[in-house]
């Protein structure tokens, strides 16, 4: 799945303007940690991690 996401981002000039970010978040229901993945613009990376 990761290869497909990377391949679709690299078709065109705007491929380097995006980054795949992975954040660990604690679930409010179970208390277990889950991973939240999102492809964001390089300028919005800091907002994603806040």
Descriptors for this entry?
50 residues; alpha+beta; two-stranded antiparallel sheet
Would you give an account of this structure?
26% of the residues lie in helices and 36% in strands. A hairpin with a 6-residue loop joins strand 1 (18-26) and strand 2 (33-41). It contains 2 helices and 2 strands, in the order H-E-E-H. The chain has a two-stranded antiparallel sheet. The protein has one domain (2-49). The radius of gyration is 13 Å and the shape is elongated. The protein is of the alpha+beta class. The relative contact order is 0.22. The two termini are 26 Å apart. The protein has helices at residues 2-9, 45-49, and strands at 18-26, 33-41. The longest helix is centred in the first third of the chain and has 8 residues, at 2-9.
Order of helices and strands: HEEH
Strand content: 35-45%
Outline: elongated
Number of helices: 2
Structural class computed from helices and strand pairing: alpha+beta
Summarize the SSE layout with pairings.
Blueprint: H1 2-9, E1 18-26, E2 33-41, H2 45-49
Antiparallel strand pairs: 1-2
């Amino acid at each position: 799945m990761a290869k497909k996401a990377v391949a679709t981002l690299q078709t065109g000039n705007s491929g380097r303007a995006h980054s795949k970010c992975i954040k660990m978040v604690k679930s409010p229901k179970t208390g277990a940690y889950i991973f939240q993945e999102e492809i964001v613009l390089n300028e919005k990376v800091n907002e994603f991690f806040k």
